[in-house]
RNA sequence: GGAGAGGUGGCUGAACGGAAAAGCACAGGCCUCGAAAACCUGAACCCUCUUUAGGGUCUGUGGGUUCGAAUCCCACCCUCUCCGCCA
């Protein structure tokens, strides 16, 4: 949510921001309502002042009593008129996305995102690399057929070494982020509507989230959505910022707008596990913290030695709560292109304002809204894809990235004998 | 699911139909060579374009009763304790 005073004072900046984000909001209407609201508010407040004065002592005089009763009705009448105005005003206010930071490049959609750097050399093979799904199915690591049987499309079973790899990856996250002051958290995955709304994912993302009607709870699409609200209505001491967490949880997405997109395999599924970084920080530090998050993401993927590129999102591809956003895209050899594995956003005070998350400033001693930053550590499905693709061997086996070997009892998945066909590993057979 | 207790500022906590005590922490002032202590003032949100100044709102949320509600009534949310069920 934006500050109404800011909108009042800088309507053109807000309009410009909405335009850049390709979001249509009637700011003129909002300001009109705001003006009307203040008019009514002033009237009702002066009546109320009168009433307070009158009622500051017991009223026995019949004349005064009559007057007081009149005031009561007048106030009630004005408040009745105020109600729909405020309702509409709030509705519009909640539709306004966070404004992009000044240094975010302008662009309509993902086509205008900017590649800011590439890391590593694209993996070379002396054979034609296969796609991850074929390899994984041969090794019995991913089972989408049975998942379809029991749950429908866009689900998958991770099995055997793939299941073990998930925990190895999480261990790598622990070892990388805990020294940086991140507090590990395993959060609930169900969340109250007002909290979900506070994070800015309802207005323009309602179709994307699962809702459990019977219990009035949403399923989180990422643990960001629940770590933010964890500190709702709280005040941080200035010295405690930045407060860094990383959450590990299952994530649930309806993928309602993605018909026909990435339908194969586990690249885009309704449920996956993810380790997510989250930080509450000082407004002046948020740009720095955002870059720090990007640095952590790069560190994590570099440790896996997977080639990637960093993409800066243009204004049109930011999403509602973000003011700036970077993605990391890993090299996927079989597709000969980069695909998104990580994303980090600076949401400035947009979420904090909605959720009333403040801090006491060390210098001014005033209460101010904190800034929130989020970023992927590892999204399991996608990073598994990147590992399998980049570490595949001619014989259909998959090597384990060196950094993960210390968490596992194997260095390779497979190998397969080309004559005998696929040999699923026996060691972990259930 | 059943029974009981409770939700008040940054924190602790009183008032239980008539201006939201008090303490702690914090800030400014005063004092001082400087500080501490004591004392005074302030402290959330909104409005009056800004200041001065004034007004309004805020006792979990939303309604109701009343001239007046933290206080009484209704609904809902949440927390704690006990019982039941349970991985």
User: Tally of extended strands?
Assistant: 18
Main beta-sheet strand count, sense and barrel state: 8 strands, mixed
Total number of distinct structural domains? 2
Sheet with the most strands: spatial strand order: 1-11-12-13-16-10-9-4
Helix and strand composition category: alpha+beta
Q: What do we call the CATH topology of the largest domain?
A: BirA Bifunctional Protein, domain 2
What is the helix content? 25-40%
Overall CATH class of the largest domain: Alpha Beta
What is the CATH homologous superfamily assignment of the largest domain? Answer: Bira Bifunctional Protein, Domain 2
What is the strand and helix layout of this fold?
Blueprint: H1 4-9, H2 11-20, H3 27-54, H4 62-95, E1 114-119, H5 132-138, E2 142-143, H6 144-151, E3 157-158, H7 160-177, E4 183-185, E5 190-191, H8 193-198, E6 211-212, E7 217-219, H9 224-227, E8 235-237, E9 243-252, E10 271-281, H10 286-303, E11 308-312, E12 324-332, E13 337-346, H11 350-355, E14 358-360, E15 367-369, E16 371-379, H12 380-390, E17 398-399, H13 402-405, E18 412-413
Parallel strand pairs: 4-9, 8-14
Antiparallel strand pairs: 1-11, 2-3, 5-7, 6-7, 9-10, 10-16, 11-12, 12-13, 13-16, 14-15, 17-18
Helix pairs in contact: 3-4, 5-12
The chain binds one RNA strand of 87 nucleotides through helix 3 and helix 4.
């Amino acid at each position: 949510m934006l500050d109404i005073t800011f909108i009042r004072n800088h309507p053109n900046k807000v309009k410009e921001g909405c335009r850049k984000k390709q979001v249509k909001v009637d700011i003129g209407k909002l300001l009109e309502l705001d003006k009307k609201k203040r008019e009514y508010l002033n009237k009702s407040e002066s009546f109320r002042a009168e009433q307070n004065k009158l009622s500051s002592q017991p009223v026995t005089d019949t004349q005064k009593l009559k007057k007081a009763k009149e005031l009561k009705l007048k106030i009630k009448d004005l408040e009745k008129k105020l109600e729909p105005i405020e309702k509409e005003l709030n509705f519009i206010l909640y539709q306004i996305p966070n404004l992009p930071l000044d240094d975010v490049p302008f662009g309509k959609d993902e086509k205008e995102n900017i590649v800011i750097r590439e890391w590593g050399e694209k993996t070379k093979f002396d054979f034609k690399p296969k796609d991850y799904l074929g390899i994984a199915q041969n090794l019995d690591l991913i089972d989408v057929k049975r998942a379809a049987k029991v749950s429908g499309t866009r689900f998958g079973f991770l099995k055997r070494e793939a299941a073990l790899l998930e925990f190895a990856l999480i261990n790598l996250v622990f070892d990388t982020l805990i020294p940086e002051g991140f507090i590990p958290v395993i959060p609930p995955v169900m969340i109250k509507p007002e909290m979900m709304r506070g994070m800015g994912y309802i207005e323009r993302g309602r179709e994307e989230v699962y809702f459990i009607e019977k219990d009035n709870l949403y399923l989180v699409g990422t643990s960001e959505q629940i770590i933010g609200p964890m500190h709702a209505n709280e005040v941080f001491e200035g010295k405690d910022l930045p407060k860094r967490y990383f959450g590990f949880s299952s994530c649930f997405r309806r993928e309602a707008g993605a018909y026909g997109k990435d339908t194969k395999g586990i690249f885009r599924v309704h449920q996956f596990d993810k380790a997510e970084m989250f930080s509450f920080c000082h407004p002046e530090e948020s740009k720095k913290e955002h870059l720090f998050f990007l640095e952590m993401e790069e560190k994590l993927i570099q440790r896996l030695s997977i080639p990637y590129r960093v993409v800066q999102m243009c204004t049109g591809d930011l999403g509602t709560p973000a003011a700036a956003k970077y993605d990391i895209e890993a090299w996927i050899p079989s597709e000969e292109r980069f695909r998104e594995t990580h994303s980090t956003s600076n949401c400035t005070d947009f979420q904090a304002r909605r959720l009333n998350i403040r801090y006491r400033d060390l210098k001014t001693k005033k209460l101010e809204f904190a800034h929130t930053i989020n970023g992927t550590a590892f999204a399991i499905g996608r990073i598994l894809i990147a590992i399998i693709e980049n570490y595949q061997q001619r014989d259909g086996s998959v090597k384990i990235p060196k950094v993960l070997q210390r968490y596992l009892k194997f260095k390779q998945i497979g190998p397969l004998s080309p004559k005998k066909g696929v040999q699923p590993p026996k060691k972990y057979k259930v």
